[in-house]
Design a protein that fits this description.
Elements: E1 4-8, H1 12-26, E2 29-33, H2 36-46, E3 50-54, H3 62-71, E4 80-84, H4 89-97, E5 102-105, H5 113-127
Helix pairs in contact: 2-3
Length: 128
């Protein structure tokens, strides 16, 4: 499964760590963006197979970025996996009500991340 993944996260170290994990574990092609605005542009131009989206970012947060992705015909069908440090039950329930492929809580285990992403894509393919 040779996938193209876009990571949208304002923290450079998280982008780099996540990129390395996904490239090594599954030989996926990984693109990165440091902001929601940059991520929207890359998603529209590159058409990745999945987007890993940080929820808490300055300027344009992840939920606003998600709304923009879902409103754009070019990007609305790209599965999105939210990456979040918000682990409260109410927040988790809210995230699962959004049209996302999955929610992965930070800090995540870099050794199981690629499996979590692959599993989310399999589950998402059954929903379509």
């Amino acid at each position: 499964m040779n996938k193209r993944i876009l990571i949208i996260d304002d923290e450079e170290d998280i982008r780099e760590t996540t990129q390395i994990c996904l490239e090594i574990a599954n030989e996926w092609q990984v693109l990165t963006a440091g902001s929601g605005k940059e991520g929207l542009l890359k998603a529209a131009c590159e058409h990745p197979d999945v987007i890993l989206l940080d929820v808490m970012m300055p300027d344009m947060d992840g939920l606003t970025t998600l709304e923009n992705l879902q409103a754009n015909p070019e990007t609305q069908n790209i599965p999105v996996i939210l990456l979040t440090a918000k682990a409260q039950a109410a927040e988790q329930r809210h995230f699962t009500q959004l049209k996302v492929a999955a929610v992965i809580t930070k800090p995540y285990d870099p050794f199981t991340l690629s499996e979590q992403v692959a599993q989310a894509l399999i589950v998402n393919s059954y929903r379509e």
